[in-house]
């Protein structure tokens, strides 16, 4: 009891010294245990954040994409509790990389900060960006730029989205979003839209959560083993084969449709070509028949011309003979008339008029009859000539008409032949073109069939939450803090040991006489040293407790809140790393005992009588300047 009172009397009489020792050890223990607890605090806070929003444990990507039927294969894998498909695409808007994602039900919950969630087509909730600022404000419109390729733009039903809310997603806990497939390769912003705004019939990824993962802390070996086992099971699952068969069956169906369409178009093309050829053949037959008729007509025309010439020749010959006969008869008539006139003149002069008239009456009657006949012959000859000329002109007109008709028919035939030749050339060109197109189409079908037959199972990319950029970066930052915690607090322990050594040495020197008196009264070295050990240990214990309490509450919070500048995280979840806290506490006690024993035993080696006298002054030593002769001699 006296021993305890002595210790507390010493504490009371030297409060400043006591609290100085306690403070320096509180600083060392606080920094060591606080920094040592920072990594567990950061990891537990991230684990709590992930559990709060049911962040995925496994993410799957496939070269073929996903369909709803693929979920059966995924859910049948080991430890997979739930799986949700999602659609996403990296796009450019005003030169900035933006990832548009569909909202998922039950996994990867979204923390809404402002506004509301999308309810109508063309609406989006934008991810907050604490570094560069939000891409747009509520009510503003985000438009996909023309820099995007056609395949990317075809994935969406609209190119403009109205911002209706600002949110944070556990999928992107870091302000650094990771890599993007567009722009300069860095993702700057993200936004969630309704799945109906995507114009695709496939999903781009599937998120899965594992059985028992919520009971395991993120970043622990147990959790990583669970995730890796599930990832291995998914990689070895029949999912790739199922997707291959689905894609192959779908492609084969499309190919069969294309082949049926090809056969139908081929049949139509061949029928059209056959009809065209038949029409050309019919036209050629008609042209040949027309040509034959025209040739017959030309021959008939030539024969008619010849007959006409013959008839005209015969007619002219007959008319000429008739003309000559008339001229002969006319000559005979004129000769007979002259003879009659001569005879009449003779009779008139010889016998008188009556006798002359009587003698010449019969002859004159014959002459009159001959003249009448001659006039009638002339009239008949003129009529015959006119009739022959009329018939000749009519025949010539008919020949001219026939010639015109034949010329028109020949011209029509030539035009028909030209059209036929043009049609034949066009038919030959169309036939060659059709044959080439049909051959190309057949080759394409064969190539498509070969491609389908050569299809291989898709590459299934399975990543765990550890591969998430933000989650992994946060783990590395926590590890850096832990690395600092292994080295930096040692400095404070060394300083604490030196301060404790100096303080206890001064205290023992000040109480030299008291130590000598106690030694003279029969107290052993152990009993005397125990007093000072108790004093320093109580200070170390008091400081250690204060350091553990303050260090494990203040330091993790300060560091965590500092990292919240770079991460989107909720409030800190405090935890104590008891092994490190006990190690720091034990190290402080060991150092305290060591330096106190060092200081106490150094004085307790002297006899009581010597301790009761004042300590002799220490022998003088040369200063540094004294050791530099040429300087010291000139001073």
Quaternary assembly: single chain
Given as residue ranges, the uncertain stretches (5+ residues, pLDDT < 50) are none
Shape summary = rod-shaped
The tally of helices reads: 14
How would you describe this structure to a colleague?
66% of the residues lie in helices and 11% in strands. It has 14 helices and 11 strands. The strands form 2 sheets. Strands 3, 4, 5, 6, 7, 8 and 9 form a 7-stranded mixed β-sheet that branches. Strands 2-10-1-11 form a 4-stranded antiparallel β-sheet. By secondary structure, the protein is α+β, with helices and mostly antiparallel strands. A hairpin with a 2-residue loop joins strand 3 (88-93) and strand 4. The model has no long low-confidence stretch (mean pLDDT 80).
Task: Jot down its keywords.
rod-shaped; seven-stranded mixed beta sheet; 14 helices
Short description:
The chain is an alpha+beta fold and 635 residues long.
List the helices and strands and how they pair.
Blueprint: H1 2-13, H2 15-52, E1 58-66, H3 70-75, E2 80-86, E3 88-93, E4 96-102, E5 111-115, E6 123-127, E7 141-143, H4 150-153, E8 160-168, E9 189-193, E10 203-210, H5 221-235, H6 239-350, H7 353-453, E11 460-464, H8 469-510, H9 512-520, H10 525-563, H11 578-604, H12 608-612, H13 624-627, H14 629-632
Parallel strand pairs: 4-9, 6-8
Antiparallel strand pairs: 1-10, 1-11, 2-10, 3-4, 5-8, 6-9, 7-8
Helix pairs in contact: 1-10, 2-8, 2-10, 2-11, 6-7, 8-11, 10-11
């Amino acid at each position: 009891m006296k021993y305890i009172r002595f210790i507390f009397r010493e504490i009371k009489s030297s409060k400043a010294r006591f609290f100085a020792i306690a403070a320096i050890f509180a600083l060392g223990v606080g920094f060591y245990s606080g920094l040592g607890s920072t990594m567990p605090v950061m990891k537990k806070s991230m684990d709590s954040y992930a559990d709060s929003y049911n962040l995925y444990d496994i993410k799957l990507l496939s070269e073929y994409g996903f369909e709803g039927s693929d979920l059966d294969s995924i859910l049948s894998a080991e430890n997979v509790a739930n799986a949700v498909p999602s659609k996403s695409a990296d796009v450019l808007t005003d030169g900035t990389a933006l990832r548009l994602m569909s909202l998922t039900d039950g996994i990867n919950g979204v923390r809404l900060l402002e506004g509301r969630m999308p309810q109508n087509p063309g609406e989006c909730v934008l991810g907050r960006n604490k570094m560069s600022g939000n891409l747009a404000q509520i009510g503003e419109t985000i438009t996909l730029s023309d820099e995007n390729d056609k395949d990317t733009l075809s994935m969406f039903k609209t190119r403009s989205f109205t911002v209706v809310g600002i949110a944070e997603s556990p999928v992107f806990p870091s302000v650094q979003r990771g890599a993007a497939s567009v722009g300069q390769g860095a993702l700057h912003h993200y936004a969630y839209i309704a799945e109906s705004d995507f114009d695709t019939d496939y999903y781009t990824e599937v998120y899965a959560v594992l059985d028992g993962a919520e009971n395991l802390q993120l970043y622990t070996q147990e959790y990583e083993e669970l995730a890796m086992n599930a990832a291995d099971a998914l990689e070895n699952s029949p999912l790739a084969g199922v997707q291959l068969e689905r894609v192959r069956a779908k492609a084969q169906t499309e190919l069969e449709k294309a082949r049926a369409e090809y056969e139908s178009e081929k049949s139509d093309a061949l029928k059209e070509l056959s009809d065209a050829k038949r029409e050309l053949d019919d036209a050629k037959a008609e042209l040949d028949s027309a040509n034959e008729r025209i040739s017959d007509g030309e021959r008939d025309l030539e024969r008619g011309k010849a007959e006409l010439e013959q008839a005209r020749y015969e007619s002219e010959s007959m008319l000429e003979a008739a003309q000559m006969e008339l001229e002969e008869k006319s000559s005979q008539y004129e000769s007979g008339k002259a003879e009659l006139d001569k005879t009449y003149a003779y009779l008139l002069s010889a016998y008188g008029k009556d006798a002359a008239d009587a003698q010449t009456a019969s002859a004159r009657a014959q002459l009159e009859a001959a003249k009448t006949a001659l006039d009638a012959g002339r009239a008949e000859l003129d009529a015959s000539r006119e009739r022959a000329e009329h018939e000749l002109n009519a025949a010539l007109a008919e020949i001219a008409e026939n010639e015109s008709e034949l010329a028109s028919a020949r011209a029509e035939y030539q035009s028909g032949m030209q059209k036929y030749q043009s049609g034949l050339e066009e038919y030959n060109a169309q036939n060659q073109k059709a044959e080439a197109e049909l051959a190309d189409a057949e080759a394409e079908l064969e190539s498509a069939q070969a491609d389908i037959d050569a299809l291989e199972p898709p590459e299934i990319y399975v990543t765990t939450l550890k591969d998430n950029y933000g989650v992994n970066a946060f783990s590395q930052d926590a590890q850096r803090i832990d690395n600092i915690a292994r080295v930096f607090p040692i400095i404070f322990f060394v300083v604490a040991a030196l301060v404790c050594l100096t303080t206890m040495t001064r205290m023992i020197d000040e109480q030299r006489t008291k130590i000598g008196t106690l030694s003279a009264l029969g107290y052993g070295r152990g009993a005397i040293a125990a007093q000072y050990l108790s004093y320093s240990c109580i200070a170390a214990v008091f400081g250690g407790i204060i350091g553990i309490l303050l260090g494990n509450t203040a330091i993790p919070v300060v560091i965590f809140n500092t990292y919240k500048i770079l991460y989107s995280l909720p409030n800190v979840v405090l935890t104590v790393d008891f092994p490190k806290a006990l190690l720091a506490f034990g190290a402080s006690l060991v150092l305290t005992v060591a330096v106190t024993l060092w200081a106490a035993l150094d004085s307790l080696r002297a006899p009581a009588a010597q301790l009761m006298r004042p300590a002799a002054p220490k022998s003088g030593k040369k200063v540094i300047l004294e050791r530099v002769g040429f300087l010291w001699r000139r001073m």
